[in-house]
Design brief:
Layout (H helix, E strand, L loop, with lengths): L2 E2 L19 H15 L8 E2 L1 E4 L7 E4 L1 H6 L28 E4 L8 E4 L6 E7 L12 H13 L5 E4 L14 E5 L15 E9 L5 E10 L9 H15 L1 H4 L11 H18 L1
Antiparallel strand pairs: 1-2, 3-4, 5-6, 6-7, 7-9, 8-9, 10-11
Protein name: GDP-D-glucose phosphorylase 1-like isoform X2
Organism: Bombus terrestris (Buff-tailed bumblebee)
Keywords: Membrane, Transmembrane, Transmembrane helix
Protein backbone atom coordinates (compact mmCIF):
# COMPACT_ATOMS: atom_id res chain seq x y z
CA UNK A 1 0.00 0.00 0.00
CA UNK A 2 1.46 3.36 -0.97
CA UNK A 3 1.44 6.48 1.16
CA UNK A 4 1.89 10.13 0.28
CA UNK A 5 2.54 12.61 3.07
CA UNK A 6 -0.19 14.95 1.86
CA UNK A 7 -2.82 12.44 2.98
CA UNK A 8 -1.88 12.87 6.66
CA UNK A 9 -2.37 9.11 7.11
CA UNK A 10 0.20 6.39 7.49
CA UNK A 11 0.55 3.54 5.06
CA UNK A 12 -0.60 1.03 7.66
CA UNK A 13 -2.55 1.19 10.86
CA UNK A 14 -2.87 -1.29 13.68
CA UNK A 15 -6.27 -2.93 13.98
CA UNK A 16 -7.08 -1.15 17.23
CA UNK A 17 -6.10 2.30 15.99
CA UNK A 18 -8.03 5.04 17.71
CA UNK A 19 -9.02 8.53 16.75
CA UNK A 20 -6.15 10.86 17.51
CA UNK A 21 -6.21 14.15 19.37
CA UNK A 22 -4.23 17.27 18.54
CA UNK A 23 -2.84 20.08 20.66
CA UNK A 24 -1.85 23.51 19.40
CA UNK A 25 1.70 22.19 19.19
CA UNK A 26 0.60 19.31 16.93
CA UNK A 27 -1.39 21.64 14.70
CA UNK A 28 1.45 24.14 14.31
CA UNK A 29 4.04 21.44 13.67
CA UNK A 30 1.90 19.80 10.98
CA UNK A 31 1.06 23.14 9.37
CA UNK A 32 4.71 24.26 9.23
CA UNK A 33 5.88 20.87 7.94
CA UNK A 34 3.29 20.79 5.16
CA UNK A 35 4.13 24.39 4.27
CA UNK A 36 7.80 23.43 3.88
CA UNK A 37 6.77 20.56 1.63
CA UNK A 38 4.62 22.88 -0.48
CA UNK A 39 7.61 25.22 -0.83
CA UNK A 40 9.78 22.30 -2.02
CA UNK A 41 12.25 22.55 0.85
CA UNK A 42 12.57 18.76 1.10
CA UNK A 43 14.85 16.62 -1.04
CA UNK A 44 11.79 14.62 -2.06
CA UNK A 45 8.06 14.33 -1.37
CA UNK A 46 7.51 11.56 1.16
CA UNK A 47 6.15 8.56 -0.71
CA UNK A 48 6.18 5.23 1.12
CA UNK A 49 5.53 2.82 -1.73
CA UNK A 50 4.97 -0.35 0.23
CA UNK A 51 4.93 -1.69 3.77
CA UNK A 52 4.49 -4.96 5.59
CA UNK A 53 4.47 -6.47 9.05
CA UNK A 54 7.22 -9.02 9.55
CA UNK A 55 6.28 -12.46 10.77
CA UNK A 56 7.05 -13.26 14.39
CA UNK A 57 5.91 -12.20 17.82
CA UNK A 58 7.30 -8.66 17.61
CA UNK A 59 5.34 -7.52 14.51
CA UNK A 60 8.06 -5.20 13.22
CA UNK A 61 6.86 -2.69 10.63
CA UNK A 62 9.03 -2.27 7.52
CA UNK A 63 8.47 0.37 4.84
CA UNK A 64 9.77 0.85 1.31
CA UNK A 65 11.04 4.43 0.92
CA UNK A 66 13.13 4.39 -2.26
CA UNK A 67 13.68 8.15 -2.40
CA UNK A 68 15.44 8.19 0.97
CA UNK A 69 17.89 5.59 -0.29
CA UNK A 70 18.79 7.57 -3.40
CA UNK A 71 18.17 11.24 -2.60
CA UNK A 72 19.25 11.72 1.00
CA UNK A 73 22.47 13.53 1.88
CA UNK A 74 25.47 11.19 2.02
CA UNK A 75 25.98 10.07 5.65
CA UNK A 76 28.99 11.29 7.56
CA UNK A 77 31.78 8.78 8.13
CA UNK A 78 31.27 7.57 11.72
CA UNK A 79 34.00 5.40 13.25
CA UNK A 80 33.52 5.93 16.99
CA UNK A 81 30.73 6.58 19.50
CA UNK A 82 32.97 9.28 20.99
CA UNK A 83 33.74 10.98 17.69
CA UNK A 84 34.11 14.75 18.25
CA UNK A 85 32.07 17.37 16.41
CA UNK A 86 33.71 18.54 13.19
CA UNK A 87 32.58 21.91 11.89
CA UNK A 88 33.92 21.06 8.42
CA UNK A 89 31.34 18.28 8.02
CA UNK A 90 27.66 18.97 7.45
CA UNK A 91 25.98 20.18 10.63
CA UNK A 92 22.75 21.89 11.60
CA UNK A 93 24.32 25.33 11.88
CA UNK A 94 24.28 25.24 8.08
CA UNK A 95 20.49 24.84 7.81
CA UNK A 96 18.75 27.45 5.69
CA UNK A 97 15.97 29.45 7.34
CA UNK A 98 13.26 27.63 5.34
CA UNK A 99 14.21 24.36 7.06
CA UNK A 100 13.78 25.86 10.54
CA UNK A 101 10.09 25.61 11.42
CA UNK A 102 9.84 26.21 15.17
CA UNK A 103 11.81 28.09 17.83
CA UNK A 104 11.47 26.65 21.34
CA UNK A 105 11.31 29.81 23.46
CA UNK A 106 14.79 31.04 22.64
CA UNK A 107 15.74 34.42 21.28
CA UNK A 108 19.05 33.05 19.99
CA UNK A 109 17.41 30.09 18.19
CA UNK A 110 19.56 27.67 20.15
CA UNK A 111 16.72 25.13 20.67
CA UNK A 112 14.74 24.66 17.49
CA UNK A 113 12.73 22.17 15.46
CA UNK A 114 13.69 21.79 11.81
CA UNK A 115 12.36 19.58 9.06
CA UNK A 116 14.25 16.44 8.17
CA UNK A 117 14.92 17.12 4.50
CA UNK A 118 14.94 13.35 3.85
CA UNK A 119 11.83 12.22 5.77
CA UNK A 120 10.93 8.67 6.72
CA UNK A 121 7.44 9.48 8.04
CA UNK A 122 4.73 12.11 8.25
CA UNK A 123 6.00 15.33 9.88
CA UNK A 124 9.50 13.87 10.26
CA UNK A 125 11.39 16.69 11.93
CA UNK A 126 14.50 17.21 14.01
CA UNK A 127 14.71 18.50 17.56
CA UNK A 128 17.99 20.44 17.70
CA UNK A 129 18.82 21.24 21.34
CA UNK A 130 21.64 23.71 22.05
CA UNK A 131 22.36 23.75 18.34
CA UNK A 132 24.82 26.63 18.49
CA UNK A 133 27.04 24.82 21.01
CA UNK A 134 28.02 22.36 18.27
CA UNK A 135 27.68 19.26 20.46
CA UNK A 136 28.36 15.75 19.10
CA UNK A 137 25.58 13.15 18.83
CA UNK A 138 25.53 12.14 22.51
CA UNK A 139 22.47 12.44 24.76
CA UNK A 140 22.68 15.32 27.23
CA UNK A 141 20.42 16.09 30.17
CA UNK A 142 19.22 19.26 28.45
CA UNK A 143 18.34 17.43 25.22
CA UNK A 144 16.50 14.68 27.10
CA UNK A 145 14.45 17.26 29.01
CA UNK A 146 13.56 18.99 25.74
CA UNK A 147 12.48 15.67 24.21
CA UNK A 148 10.21 14.96 27.19
CA UNK A 149 8.80 18.48 26.99
CA UNK A 150 7.74 17.85 23.40
CA UNK A 151 5.76 14.83 24.56
CA UNK A 152 3.99 16.99 27.13
CA UNK A 153 3.13 19.57 24.46
CA UNK A 154 1.50 16.97 22.21
CA UNK A 155 -1.89 15.31 22.67
CA UNK A 156 -1.25 12.79 19.91
CA UNK A 157 -0.98 9.11 20.80
CA UNK A 158 1.22 8.58 17.76
CA UNK A 159 3.97 11.14 18.18
CA UNK A 160 7.40 9.51 18.29
CA UNK A 161 10.67 10.95 19.56
CA UNK A 162 13.73 8.87 18.72
CA UNK A 163 17.48 9.10 19.19
CA UNK A 164 19.99 7.22 17.06
CA UNK A 165 23.54 7.34 18.36
CA UNK A 166 26.86 7.27 16.56
CA UNK A 167 27.59 3.80 15.13
CA UNK A 168 23.82 3.13 15.34
CA UNK A 169 22.65 4.76 12.10
CA UNK A 170 23.22 8.40 13.07
CA UNK A 171 24.31 10.08 9.84
CA UNK A 172 25.16 13.53 11.27
CA UNK A 173 27.46 14.02 14.25
CA UNK A 174 25.61 17.03 15.64
CA UNK A 175 23.20 16.59 18.56
CA UNK A 176 19.66 15.92 17.32
CA UNK A 177 16.52 13.91 18.07
CA UNK A 178 14.00 12.66 15.51
CA UNK A 179 10.35 13.63 15.75
CA UNK A 180 7.50 12.20 13.65
CA UNK A 181 4.01 10.67 13.76
CA UNK A 182 3.49 6.95 13.22
CA UNK A 183 0.00 5.47 13.50
CA UNK A 184 1.20 2.05 14.49
CA UNK A 185 1.41 0.77 18.05
CA UNK A 186 5.02 0.27 19.04
CA UNK A 187 6.15 -2.95 20.69
CA UNK A 188 6.60 -1.46 24.16
CA UNK A 189 3.03 -0.16 24.09
CA UNK A 190 1.45 -3.58 24.17
CA UNK A 191 3.94 -6.20 25.32
CA UNK A 192 6.12 -6.78 28.35
CA UNK A 193 9.60 -8.19 28.10
CA UNK A 194 9.29 -11.89 28.74
CA UNK A 195 12.42 -13.54 30.10
CA UNK A 196 13.08 -16.37 32.51
CA UNK A 197 11.50 -15.02 35.67
CA UNK A 198 8.91 -12.87 37.41
CA UNK A 199 9.74 -9.79 39.43
CA UNK A 200 8.04 -7.00 41.37
CA UNK A 201 8.98 -4.13 43.67
CA UNK A 202 7.07 -2.95 46.75
CA UNK A 203 7.29 0.80 47.28
CA UNK A 204 5.92 3.30 49.76
CA UNK A 205 5.80 7.11 49.50
CA UNK A 206 8.27 9.17 51.46
CA UNK A 207 7.42 12.51 53.07
CA UNK A 208 8.32 14.30 49.82
CA UNK A 209 5.97 12.05 47.82
CA UNK A 210 8.72 10.08 46.06
CA UNK A 211 8.15 6.31 46.00
CA UNK A 212 10.86 4.46 47.89
CA UNK A 213 11.52 0.72 47.24
CA UNK A 214 11.27 -1.28 50.47
CA UNK A 215 11.10 -4.90 49.27
CA UNK A 216 11.65 -7.06 46.20
CA UNK A 217 10.03 -10.24 44.94
CA UNK A 218 11.23 -12.55 42.19
CA UNK A 219 11.21 -16.18 41.17
CA UNK A 220 12.16 -18.30 38.19
CA UNK A 221 9.47 -19.23 35.68
CA UNK A 222 8.35 -22.82 35.49
CA UNK A 223 8.75 -24.50 32.11
CA UNK A 224 5.00 -24.44 31.45
CA UNK A 225 4.79 -20.77 32.49
CA UNK A 226 7.58 -19.72 30.13
CA UNK A 227 5.35 -20.69 27.21
CA UNK A 228 2.50 -18.43 28.33
CA UNK A 229 1.65 -15.14 26.65
CA UNK A 230 2.71 -11.78 28.06
CA UNK A 231 -0.81 -11.04 29.34
CA UNK A 232 -0.86 -14.23 31.43
CA UNK A 233 2.56 -13.53 32.94
CA UNK A 234 1.66 -9.93 33.75
CA UNK A 235 -1.45 -11.10 35.62
CA UNK A 236 0.54 -13.88 37.29
CA UNK A 237 3.22 -11.60 38.71
CA UNK A 238 0.58 -9.19 40.06
CA UNK A 239 -1.26 -12.04 41.79
CA UNK A 240 1.87 -13.60 43.26
CA UNK A 241 3.33 -10.29 44.42
CA UNK A 242 0.11 -9.45 46.27
CA UNK A 243 0.08 -12.88 47.93
CA UNK A 244 3.78 -12.58 48.82
CA UNK A 245 3.28 -9.19 50.49
CA UNK A 246 -0.23 -9.80 51.85
CA UNK A 247 0.97 -9.29 55.42
CA UNK A 248 1.86 -5.71 54.42
CA UNK A 249 -1.20 -5.07 52.25
CA UNK A 250 -4.17 -6.51 54.14
CA UNK A 251 -6.35 -3.69 55.46
CA UNK A 252 -4.55 -1.05 53.38
CA UNK A 253 -5.30 0.72 50.13
CA UNK A 254 -2.60 0.06 47.57
CA UNK A 255 -1.96 0.77 43.89
CA UNK A 256 -0.70 -1.68 41.27
CA UNK A 257 1.64 -0.06 38.75
CA UNK A 258 2.21 -1.84 35.44
CA UNK A 259 4.11 -0.81 32.33
CA UNK A 260 1.79 -2.92 30.19
CA UNK A 261 -1.29 -1.44 28.52
CA UNK A 262 -2.62 -4.99 28.24
CA UNK A 263 -3.67 -5.01 31.90
CA UNK A 264 -5.50 -1.69 31.64
CA UNK A 265 -7.31 -2.79 28.50
CA UNK A 266 -8.28 -6.12 30.08
CA UNK A 267 -9.65 -4.45 33.22
CA UNK A 268 -11.57 -1.95 31.11
CA UNK A 269 -13.05 -4.81 29.08
CA UNK A 270 -14.12 -6.65 32.25
CA UNK A 271 -15.73 -3.52 33.70
CA UNK A 272 -17.68 -2.83 30.49
CA UNK A 273 -18.63 -6.49 30.10
CA UNK A 274 -19.84 -6.65 33.71
CA UNK A 275 -21.89 -3.48 33.23
CA UNK A 276 -23.54 -4.83 30.07
CA UNK A 277 -24.51 -8.08 31.80
CA UNK A 278 -26.11 -6.16 34.68
CA UNK A 279 -28.03 -3.70 32.48
Amino acid sequence: MSYNSSTEANCVCSEDIKKDEESNFDLVLKEKWMEAQKNEVFRYILNIQDSKILEGKYHFLVQLNIDRGYKRRSPESIISMNQPFNEKDFNFIKLVSEEQIMNLNNTDKDDIIAINASPIEYCHSLLLPQRCKQLPQLVTKHSLVKAVELFSLSLSSYIRVAFNSLCAFASVNHLHWHLYYLKWRMLLEYIIQVGIGLGAVLKQPRDNGILQPIAYFSRKLKLTESKKKAFHLECLVIKEAILYWQHCLIGRNFTVLSFSLIIFEALLFMIINNYLHKS
